[in-house]
Every structure is written in structure tokens, then in C-alpha cells.
Here is the input.
Amino acid sequence: MDSFAGEKPALRWVVHASVLFLVVLWVVPTLGLLISSFRTADQIATSGWWRALFPSEQNLTLRSAAPETQVLEDGLYVIQGKLFGDDQTVKISRWGISSREIDAFTPGETAELRRGGTITVDGDGNYRMENTEEFTGNRGARIFVTAELPPEFTFDNYQTVLFDKGSSDSMGRAFFSTLTVTIPATIIPILVAAFAAYALAWMDFPGRALLIAAVVGLLVVPLQLALIPLLKFHLNIGIGKGYLGVWLAHTGFGMPLAIYLLRNYMAGLPRDLIENARVDGATEFQIFTKLILPLSFPALASFAIFQFLWTWNDLLVAKVFLIDATGQTTVMTNRIVELLGTRGGNWEILATAAFVSIAVPLVVFFAMQKYLVRGLLAGSVK
Amino acid sequence: MTPALQGLLTIAIGVLGCVGYFYLSNQFLDKVLCPPRGPNAGRNINRANMIRPWLFLFPAIAALGLYLAYPVVETLRLSLTERVPGGGYQWVGLDNYAQMAAEPKFWEAMRNNMLWLIVVPAMSTAFGLLVAQLTDRIRWGNVAKSLIFMPMAISFVGASVIWKLVYDSRPEAEDQIGILNALYLFFGGTDPQTWLTIPFWNSFFLMIVLVWIQTGFAMVILSAALRGIPEETIEAAILDGANPFQIFFRIKVPQIKATILVVWTTITITVLKVFDIVFAMTNGQWETQVLANYMYDKLFRANDWGVGSASAMVIMLLVTPILIWNVRQVRNEGSPSLGGD
Here is the structure.
């Protein structure tokens, strides 16, 4: 197309640049949260996540070793050591010994300590304190440094959110609750809908057209309408709030899309194939299980992804049909909303919790994007 | 029992139950009820063929009827009644609707919902179309599309957290950690803004979240539609000396009008049901209320099932034109919009 589209090279650059701009615009918000989930609470609160990728200049308050480590060298009492661990590469630009003047000295200069003696700090964080008399007290001297620190990331947040037995215990549990909701709520509607879709596509019976129209009509019914009537119904028949209720609800709500997608796909399978099987004496049940199901794999996969994403990401249905007052069965989305309310400022917890819940759908998305796209197109473009 | 084990067990029971029903009911039909042998073999085969579709359909129809059709009727009934303190219901006619119409919060939700209905489908479709067109001819187009499509997999709640960080605001003296405020200050803004508490405009900041999610959907479908346009029409336009913009607006867009409509209506349905974003980000404070969240408030906070059901019926009413259009589309072999979720 390029050759005859009459496009100027300038226009091509504009196209590339605009696409790049849009992609950055779309990715940056997610990237921000992802990076934040690997930073400590202090880092998140004091600097934007976009600074985390570059070495940053920070003001730190450190302390020298305690006086008890001093040694006597040629009549001088000496304390020396390093301000940073061996694994850190740090560039100190200024340092000081008073909180009022944290940048009083450059590396290599020598400062007079208030309690007697001198101190020298070099650019790499090595310090040496000298005194003609013995250092006293039981704590080291405070040293203020302005230093360039390399980017630093931590997995601690994930450790806390997923495995800590303390306050955040329920995120690990919520993960399993979500999984427990999702898997049956994905598999059961597929099974139920596949049989119905086959009947609607390949069996003749009175009322078929009407049923198809009804399914399409129900596609758009907002599930909001179902909340109270069904909650009442579940309470009346004794299911109450729980996994069974939420599976049934998801099965019902996913049913129109499932039937619609699968019927469309099955109706497109070659007629000869099914007629031949019938002539050969196969029962409808055999045709369905041995022929239709395997051939419909792409459609089954695309609906499975839809339903999986939708049940995994759902908040409303779980809130209404699953989560009871004890909160034992809370799902991740609900847990995150609770965190937003109670710990809205704790970004390290929030970001990590959100990413734990986002990670699984993202993996599914990137692994099975082909089927997802195919499913969308099967439903909307003919 | 650990939750994991319990989950696995229930999955097994659920799936086995399902498979069991279909297998056993078919066996029962073929072996016991209408065996295709003996003196009545012919009649039995016909009978079995009449019954079998309903065996296949029964669980699906039961689920559809109970979980979607019945609630519509029941919600309508609830919206016309009121719970009596001792138990039971009392017919109150349109009182619930009148009570709802007298509440400023309801009209705020209606106004916001109308804004959402205009802005989100329009922006998502426009961005989707733009990306679809731009990525059509570049080599890394698929990577770009994949990244813009990605938010589709993220939950509304997850997206809310993501965007809350974008909109975060710190006092002026501190470093901003929300990128929007950082950019705002960088480009000459004076004080950091708390974006989600500025009435009227905050609704737009919430809408951006949904546009961000839905653009990928619009893009995927419109991109396929663009590819489906016959090359000859474009070649002819080029020969006639049309410039790229004319080709896009005069040749391509008119040919995919039907698909644009499907995308638009599908996003409209999603917008009407949007609950999680508002619930998680502002919970309807600072004049950001929308119908779905208003309804949730009424049902589960105020415990007022009458008004809650009435507001659910308002959502249903707004969806109805699309429902009718959908059914007619299918009758005419067109494409309906997908409600799904």
C-alpha cells in the first residue's frame, strides 16, 4: 500500500511518532504501579516512581560505629568504617555533621566534632574519626550525607502482601478465593452453553428462532437487575451467600454471550460433516462430543478467556453473592477496595496487592490474545 | 480442609455433575424412554429427536430464565412495592419512582451517566479508530496494538488503583508522586490539584479510566473492519487524487459505519453498568455519582429495595433501545452489540 498511497515520508514519521505517543500514554499508568510495587514505602512517598529508574540524589542520616569499636593507633584513638555496604556503589557529593548544615563539607574535608576530635568522609563513604582522648558515649556520631544512590528495588512488598501472617494475611487467602470462584465459573457455563449452542445450531425444533432472539436480547440485560431478586432467591432456597451462589450467578450471567458465540461458530461448521455422521448412525450425543466439541475448540477457548477475565476481575457479583459478614471468602478485587479505603496512603501495599490480582489475567491475556481477538471478532464482525 | 483443596473438590463435583447430567439424560432417552428398536422403533426415534433438543437446552434455558429473565420481572415488581416492617410487601404504585425523582443525588447520577454515555463511547471509538488506522501500515503495529489492548485484561478495580496513583496529590512542599500533578507542575501549574475532588471535571477523570480500558476493544474490532474494506475502493480514490485524510474520512469510515455502530453500542452497555470504577475511586462523592453506584448504595447501604429496584429499572430502560435494535439486527442477519460484561 505504501508505494501508491501517495504518502510523504514526513507523514510516515508523524504516524510512527503518534503511535509511539499513544502506546506510551497507554502503558505509563500501569508501568507506574508496577515499578511502585518494587519500591519501599519511603521511596514511594518521597519521590515519583519515574525517578526510581535512575540514580537519585538523596539526603541520608547515618551514624558512625559506636565508640566501643575505637582502636589506639600511635597515641590517637581512631574509629573507622564504611557508611554503606560493600554491594552499594555510592557517590557522596556533600556531607555534614549537624542537622542544620547537612551539606557543610565536600568529600575528603575534615570536620571538627563537637565533642572533640575530627572526622573525615571520602566520596565512597569511608570515614575516619580521630581523637587524642578516648571517644565516650555509647552511640556513634551522626553523619549527614547527600549522595547519589543507584536505583534500588525490593521484593519485600510481595513477601508482605502474599505471605505475611499479620494484617495482610488475607491477600494470599483472597487469591485462592478468587481462584475458587473463577475456575468452576468458567468451566460450567462453557459445558452448559456448548450443548445449548449445538441444539440451536444443528437441531430442528419449533421455537428455535425465538430462542435465538431471546438469547441476543438477554445479552444486554444489565446484571444490576438480577442482584436483589437472585439474592432473595438464594436465601430462600438455602444457598445463602457462598461459592455455590456465585458460581450459579456467573453461569447465568455468562450464558447469553457463551451461547451466542458458540452457536455462531458451530453454525459455521460444514453441514456435510454432521449429516454424514448422522447417516453413519452416530447419535447426537456422539456427534456433539466426538465431532463438534473438538472442532469448536477456538470458540470454546475464546469464550473461556472472556469468562475467565470477567469472573476474575469481577467485584459486584462477588460482593453480592459471595462475601458474607465473616469475610472469610473475600476475593482479591474486594480486598483491594478495602485497602483503598483503609490504607489509601500505603501505596506499597496497594500497588503490590493490585499487581498480584492483575498478574494472572495479564499472563492469560498475552498467552491467549489470539483467541481473545478471534472471539471478539466472531461476535461483532461478519 | 485448606481452601485450595476445597476449591479443587468443588470444581470436580461441579464439572462432573454437569457432564453427568448430559450423559445420563441422553442415555436415559436412548435406552429407557425411547429405545430405537422393537416394534415402535420408528416412532421412538422421532420422539427422541423431538425431546433431545430440550435435553441439550434445558440447563441453559433454566440459567437464562432464572438468572436474567426472571430478575427483570421481579425487579419491576419490587420497584412498585415496599417492604413492610413485619415482613411481606405492600403495593405502592409509583411511589418509589417519585421518591427517587425527588432526590438530588439521583439527578446527579443521571446527569453524570448522560455525560459518561456521550464521552466514553465517543472517545473510546475515536481512539480505537485512530489507533487501528495508524497501526495498519507500520511494522510494529501488532506490538503497539497488543499494548493498547492490554488494559482490557485489567479489572476495573485494578485500573482504579493504577489511575489513583496517576491522580495522586501531595502538598506543595513535597515531591509529587502522581504523574499528572508532576506534569502539571512541570508545565507551569502553580499548586498541585486533587483531581478527583474538583466537581464536574472529576467525572471526566473517572471516564478516562474506562476509555483507557475500552479503546483496545474498539481498536481490535475496527482494525479488522478496516482490513476488510475492498482494496479497489481505496485504489480508485488514490487514482482520483484523494489525500490520506480524504481516503480515511470519505472512503474508509463510511464503509465501516455498521461496525462503528456495533462498537459504540457495546461500549454504551458497558458504560451503563459501570460500577467498580466509581465505587473504588470516589464512591460517588464530590458529585461523581452514577446510576449503577447509586443503585448499589440504595440496595446495600440504605437497604431500600424499592428505590434501588426503581433505579435498576431506569438502567434497564436506557438499555432497552439497544436490546430491541440487537434483536432486530439478528433477525436481519446483522451483528448485535455484545453485553457480555
Summary: Residues 41-79 of chain B form the longest helix (39 residues).
